[in-house]
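Reading is simple: the token line describes the chain's fold. The lines below illustrate.

. . .
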Amino acid sequence: MAIDLGLLLGNKNPPLIGLDISTSGVKLVELADAGKNEYRLERFASEPLPRGAVVDGNIENIEQVSEAVRRVCKKSGTRARHVAIGMPPASVITKKIVLPAGLSEDELEVQVESEANQYIPFALEEVSLDFDVIGLAPNSPDDVEVLIAATRKEKVEDRVAVVEAAGLKPLVMDIESYAARAAIDRVTAQLPKGGQGQIVALFQIGAQATHVSVLLDGQTIYEREQPFGGNQLTQDIVRAYGMTFEEAETKKRAGDLPEGYQQELLEPFLDNAALEVTRAIQFFFTSTPFTHIDQIFLAGGCANIPGLVEMVAERTKISTSVVSPFKGMQLGSNLREKQLRAEAPAFLVACGLAMRRFD
């Protein structure tokens, strides 16, 4: 079975959970409509994955991942069965093309397929292909801009298999970076003047990689991925204290490490992280016409490490804060605010996926 890489959700009535499957774990978010374009966060939960279950965005062990999905659903208490899942940006080829306005859906499909052949290095029967009409083409009122998204069928089928094995039904598949952008757009809209004209840099620091997006007025103007993540600190702990990777990860999260940890391991890691951010910003300046950034947002599992925000702000001389995708949302009655504050930055993609319910 193939599932469209749909940026659109046909029926917005059924409850829908956003499910983010990453290298380190599975994260779930369920939102409800609170009226007046407001959301209520009903449920959120995460569940770690064994090492090697997901590698570089590829699902290597369907059974382990579907078991984690089952556990995260149980832990959250959700009854929703419909799911929005994400694909890693590196697995998806996207391209904007311009086509004549006024084509029927079938005509669009034919045109998209013939255009896609130029950009996709695989046979079309090997890929899941989808497209979305973005709007009128700039400077050309007779044309429309169309976004094409394509990925290998097997990558889609692996994610579908995981979700179905956990007893869920995949309704929407999106690109993780697009889901994160949907979530961040909500947050930037709460900046002064609704964030208009503000250049915002989003750093999602994951277990293995840091995804960098620079946004201006809801559009991505720059994107790159850097091979730097929280696993580096975990590996340092493994080497320094002779622990297993799992033990080191648990103790890192709990802050339960020997006395010299902060000075010997944590501070050099923070220093390195701030250097990666500074380097990414320099790349942005040298490869685009832009010369400044107004705001840095840190997200991902590492964003809340004590001292990171301050160090990045000091190095870059740019206003820096940890981002919560749930900022300004109403909260369901069973949610613990302290836990939410600590974990929210890691839920950007899951939150953006859950927002697909309201498209």
